[in-house]
Amino acid sequence: MKRRTFLAGSLGVAALRGASAEALKIGITDWNLGLAGKIGAIEMARRLGFEGVQVSIGRRIEDGKMPLDDPASIARYRAESAKQNMPIDSSCLDRLHDDCLKDRGSAAPKRITDGIRITAALGTPIMLVPFFGKCELHAADLDYTGDALREVAPEAEKAGVILGLENTLSAEENVRIMDRARSRAVLVYYDVGNSTNWHHDVLREIPWLGRERICQFHLKDNPHYLGEGSIDFVAVLKAIRGIGFRGYANLETDAPSHNIDADLRRNLSFVRGILGTGG
Fold first, then answer.
1. Are 108 and 144 spatial neighbours (Cβ–Cβ below 8 Å)?
2. How confident is the model at residue 22 (pLDDT cuts 50, 70, 90)?
3. What pLDDT, on the 0 to 100 scale, is given for residue 44?
């Protein structure tokens, strides 16, 4: 199966759950709702007007399992998603903030395979795989990380789950990992805020990577409201549309006023305003 075919089938999961496959869809992360790992994020995302929600698998380990590794919990999430008509557009393997894939002998490969199973059970096709803090990747870590992903990627392919790499690396460094992983299931989770903060050229990288190497986006310019920081979101959204991307862009925005509802509505309205004018 070619990568294009795999992506079309996987991203179709979200489309079949009520989201248009013809337009960029705007979702929200559960942690920016203040509800990381809590099922109430689904209703709140709907109430605020988002088109999808990214949910946390959870960092606490109990009896060797992450918090969402429970069939009853997964069933409740799926039922709530259907009730609210709110797709779970992706998961986040936030345990990888503690178990680093670059560390030999760590529990990270098991967390990834467990996360793949959980993500597939949730009925969503994308799992964010983060590399930040003590788990941040550097040049010396790239080949080992790619090799480690190659070991777990067959499970992702079998489950129809994309592993979305989010990190501080350049587009070229991410592609080096992807090439090493040798899997259609290993793609880039592109965060425009992180890339800007680490001095990568967002407007060059998005078209260079293209839609076949990006599974999803995060939009943010923290600690600012969107449009009030340094990032030109008119140009960013034009670049995203320009590559023909038809998946989700999730807001990962702070609440400067500490009123989460008001600030998220403001940022969502800003993005929708750009998209409505052809940005």
1. no
2. low
3. 98
Please say whether the dihedral angle defined by the alpha carbons of residues 259, 77, 97 and 27, taken in this order, is positive or negative: negative
Between 233-242 and 260-276, two packed helices, what is the crossing angle to 10 degrees?
60
Residues 6+ apart with CB under 8 A from 243: 206, 207, 209, 210, 211, 214
How far apart are alpha carbons 258 and 263 in whole angstroms? 8
Domains and CATH numbers, the chain: 3-276 (3.20.20.150)
SS3 string, the chain, reads CCHHHHHHHHHHHHHHCCCCCCCCEEEEECCCCCCCCCCHHHHHHHHHCCCCEEEECCCCCECCECCCCCHHHHHHHHHHHHHHCCCEEEEECHHHHCCCCCCCCCCHHHHHHHHHHHHHHHCCCEEEEECCHHHCCCHHHHHHHHHHHHHHHHHHHHHCCEEEEECCCCHHHHHHHHHHHCCCCEEEEEEHHHHHHCCCCHHHHHHHHCCCCEEEEEECCCCCCCCCCCCCHHHHHHHHHHCCCCCEEEECCCCCCCCHHHHHHHHHHHHHHHHHCCC
pLDDT above 60 for 62? yes
pLDDT digits (tens, 9 = 90+) for 126-178: 999 999 999 999 999 999 999 999 999 999 999 999 999 999 999 999 999 99
> Tokens for 87?
């797709």
Phi first, then psi, for residue 28 (nearest 5°) are -145, 150
Contacting residues for 110 by C-beta, under 8 A, at least 6 apart: none
